[in-house]
Design a protein that fits this description.
alpha+beta, OB fold (Dihydrolipoamide Acetyltransferase, E2P), 3 domains, five-stranded mixed beta barrel, 15 helices, 18 strands, elongated
Length: 510
């Protein structure tokens, strides 16, 4: 426990901007030097707690004041000092570990408790400490630890904000570690996120889906229409791309004989930042052989409802003040029907490109002379339909020219057997009956490559190896991608994707 740190003892106090050079921080450095000079190890690795605070609250929180008289057990805890109330010969302080908070009480008395109080007087808010002692309840009924031993576990050289509200939104995202220390709601969100991922995994595993891992770096980016991030592999002497989707590798596994597979992992898209978009994000993708998009609509209803019940205990809730009801069956609406009924498009916009362009212009949308009819219609949808889809709604039968990997509908080859799921005005999932005709797939890749050459940076590349895989025969199948971050946003009632990603990407501050 005794150790002198000569580097700290001689280290200068921080300097730089006004905040870093504050007298509070300088005083902390001086105090740390004094402790180190007195022989204290400021960063030992010897203390071992035996209990979590939540354990004590669960076991003893319901006991009455008198029940603690015969409770002779000693409890050993470690945590961060979050608040203190000094009264001269005694002090109350709040100790926080990963499971919760507990009050502790030190008082002047002969023996080890005196040494514990003396050491605590030299400590600061934010310090990590280890304590051992007995439990009791105060007159006000507060479960409290009475330590007879206290030691420093890690010295905090930087002060915590006095209040959570002192943390601006940007600071919360850039210094997530401080946000998590100060904000129980942030800790709740990320516990919920872990529960959501586990619930998705359990749901699919229980239905015979095999969890797999596919490459993060692709020679040819594919599986979605998006601009990829580029990198370079020195040993291979070739350009590689961070994956925009795992789709084409997962469908190669269908060819190989795994007829139910899924992956929960990261994807990367070189696009803008917003409350819904982060360039690095988490998706669930799963594929089921001998199924079509209608089967996946049923499966998705069941999966989302089960996950909501597991993590929220209810299938009806509010998101940012907007009611959301997972009661089944969910609404199903065709794409063209949606842009007519909700988007206000004239009937001629369904088949006439100029009519669709005119309506998009009327709405103030961004138009391009290179856009095919389906892409123009999709822009109308994004502007006028998507924001108005509150309760879970499946939008089905998307145009083929914006669905390069989806199977064409039997009754209309200009449309595809595809759906997207929208909840609270946001897309949560995208799915379709998979295209397994290699010649049709090759032709669609060719058209996408032409669009790229004409300036469409999100157009797909031609992946001839994937076409070759289809030549071996892929069983009829359906596949789906679910935006895990957006699902967590929904269930956590979080307004921004940055609230559910531990370390989101942010613009550089000048």
């Amino acid at each position: 426990m005794i150790h002198t740190d000569p580097e700290l003892a001689s280290a200068p106090a921080p300097s730089g901007d006004e905040d870093e050079a504050s007298s509070v921080i300088r005083a902390r450095f001086e105090k740390a030097r004094e402790l180190a000079a007195s022989g204290w190890n400021l960063y030992p690795n010897t203390f071992r707690p035996t209990h979590k605070i939540s354990d004590l609250r669960a076991l003893y929180g319901g006991l009455g004041h008198d029940d603690f008289e015969n409770l002779a057990q000693t409890f050993t805890l470690a945590g961060r000092v979050m608040a203190r109330r000094d009264y001269g010969k005694s002090v109350f302080f709040d100790l926080a570990d990963s499971s919760g908070r507990l009050q502790a009480y030190l008082r002047r008395q002969a023996g080890p408790a005196d040494a514990a109080l003396d050491l605590f007087k030299k400590m600061d808010l934010g310090d990590l400490v280890g304590v051992s002692g007995r439990l009791f309840k105060t007159r006000t009924g507060e479960l409290t630890l009475l330590p007879d031993h206290l030691e420093l576990v890690a010295k905090a050289l930087w002060p915590l904000p006095e209040k959570y509200h002192e943390l601006g939104v940007e600071t919360r995202y850039r210094r997530r570690y401080v946000d998590l220390i100060m904000n129980e709601d942030s800790r709740r969100v990320f516990r919920l996120r872990s529960q959501v991922v586990s619930a998705l995994r359990d749901f699919l595993a229980a239905r015979g889906f095999l969890e797999v891992e596919t490459p993060m770096m692709h020679a040819i980016p594919g599986g979605a229409s998006a601009r990829p991030f580029e990198t370079f592999h020195q040993a291979l002497n070739r350009k590689l791309y961070l994956r925009i989707a795992p789709e084409l590798h997962l469908k190669r596994l269908l060819v190989g004989g795994f007829d139910r597979v899924f992956e929960i992992n990261r994807c990367f898209r070189n696009e803008g930042l917003s409350v819904q978009h982060n360039p690095e994000f988490t998706t669930l993708e799963f594929y089921q052989g001998y199924a079509d998009f209608r089967d996946l609509m049923d499966l998705t209803e069941e999966m989302f409802t089960e996950v909501a019940l597991k993590v929220k205990g209810a299938a009806s809730f509010t998101y940012q003040g907007r009611p959301v009801d997972f009661k089944r069956p969910w609404r199903r609406l065709r794409f063209h029907q949606a842009i007519l009924e909700i988007g206000g498009a004239p009937p001629e916009a369904l088949l006439d490109r100029q009519a669709a362009l005119d309506h998009l212009k009327k709405l103030g949308g961004e138009k391009s002379d290179q856009d095919p009819l389906g892409k123009i219609q999709a822009k109308i949808f994004d502007l006028r339909v998507e924001p108005n889809l509150g309760d879970p709604t499946f939008i089905t039968h998307y145009p083929a020219d914006i669905s390069p990997l989806a199977r064409r509908s039997e009754d209309n080859p200009l449309l595809t057997d595809r759906f997207e799921l929208f909840i609270a005005g946001r897309e949560l999932a995208n799915a379709f009956s998979e295209l397994n005709d290699p010649l049709d797939q090759r032709e669609r890749f060719r058209r996408q490559a032409e669009a790229r050459a004409a300036g469409d940076e999100e157009g797909m590349y031609n992946d001839e190896d994937y076409v070759r895989a289809l030549m071996y025969g892929m069983p009829p199948a359906a596949g789906e991608g679910v935006g895990v971050d957006r699902l967590v946003m929904l269930l956590a009632d979080a307004p921004s994707i940055k609230d559910v990603i531990l370390f989101p990407h942010l613009r550089t501050v000048a």
